[in-house]
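Design request, tokens follow.
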């Protein structure tokens, strides 16, 4: 068995704990860093910083990069609240959290703010599958984008999965994906 396949088996068997990247570099010597990069390159595996709660230290670990597909019932589209719950669950699995954003003075602000210890905050407007933001929501998305905020919208569970796979690899890749998603769907006259 090759070293790459052996490492894949070790990661797969670790399940949700992952394997510390420092341990891989120790076990495999100079080839360890190359193996980590090769596994993460195709998106099958990802590295994340994990914080140890009892002594507040952190370490990089490698995990299998899989986000479980949302189970839909009876072929019906999920509601906006279900998509928000699913987004919250995915971010929590990565070690972050989300907060509901309600602003009494401004209508149309994004629904959720994503927080993660190693990434910038993201402002996300959540929609049902196939829906687009309303005009006052587009206005707020553009206003926040002009203030250099990471902002966008996700319509449905499939887009949440796509965003989370980018977000788990790099916040910059996620920002580019999110903004290109906005650019492709924004109505005329908003940019």
């Amino acid at each position: 068995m090759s070293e790459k396949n052996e490492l894949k088996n070790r990661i797969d068997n670790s399940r949700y704990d992952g394997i510390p990247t420092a341990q891989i570099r120790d076990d495999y010597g100079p080839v360890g860093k190359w193996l980590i990069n090769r596994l993460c390159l195709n998106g099958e595996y990802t590295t994340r910083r994990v914080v140890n709660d009892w002594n507040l230290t952190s370490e990089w670990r490698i995990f299998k990069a899989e986000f479980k597909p949302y189970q839909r019932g009876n072929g019906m589209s999920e509601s906006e609240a279900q998509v928000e719950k699913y987004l919250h669950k995915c971010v929590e699995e990565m070690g972050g959290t989300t907060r509901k954003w309600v602003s009494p003075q401004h209508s149309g602000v994004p629904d959720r703010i994503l927080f993660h210890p190693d990434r910038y905050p993201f402002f996300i407007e959540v929609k049902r599958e196939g829906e687009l933001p309303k005009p006052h929501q587009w206005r707020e998305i553009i206003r926040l984008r002009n203030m250099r905020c990471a902002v966008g919208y996700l319509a449905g569970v499939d887009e949440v999965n796509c965003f989370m796979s980018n977000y788990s690899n790099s916040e910059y890749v996620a920002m580019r994906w999110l903004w290109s998603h906005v650019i492709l769907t924004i109505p005329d006259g908003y940019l």
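Comment from the thread starter after seeing the answer: thanks! The longest strand covers residues 119-127.
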